Amino acid sequence: xxxxxxxxxxxxxxxxxxxxxxxxxxxxxxxxxxxxxxxxxxxxxxxxxxxxxxxxxxxxxxxxxxxxxxxxxxxxxxxxxxxxxxxxxxxxxxxxxxxxxxxxxxxxxxxxxxxxxxxxxxxxxxxxxxxxxxxxxxxxxxxxxxx
Length: 147
Description:
The protein is of the alpha+beta class. It folds into 2 domains: 2-73, HSP40/DNAj peptide-binding domain, CATH 2.60.260.20; 76-134, UreE, C-terminal domain (Alpha-Beta Plaits, 2-Layer Sandwich), CATH 3.30.70. Helices cover 17% and strands 37% of the residues. The protein has 3 helices and 11 strands; from the N terminus they run βββαβββββαββαβ. Strand 9 and strand 10 form a beta hairpin. The N and C termini lie far apart (43 Å). This is Urease accessory protein UreE. Involved in urease metallocenter assembly. Binds nickel. Probably functions as a nickel donor during metallocenter assembly. Its main location: cytoplasm.
């Protein structure tokens, strides 16, 4: 089955007593416009979306007579940076941004992909952070930059 659009999110979708067939997707695959996945029950699913679509946890990909195919975003290894004040957050965001590390800001924290060098830098500057496995709302996309 080839899909060109998301039908909605499972929390707002009437499953009508149908089985939920999970379709797991990695953070890297969430960044792709065209991807081939397999559901937990072995159904092959091709996704070919417009470039502005962001795949989210719980997206309903399709349904048939028996099942609703629901996207399950797999967690990724991230650093959750929560400085104690705005000045430290600005310093951390500026410094990490200079390394062109992709970041999202959620729940009062800066979240980046795990990088041991950045973790070491945060330790050296006494900036509070934790290493976690999370599903972020927007996938971390590397920003290319040429000097």
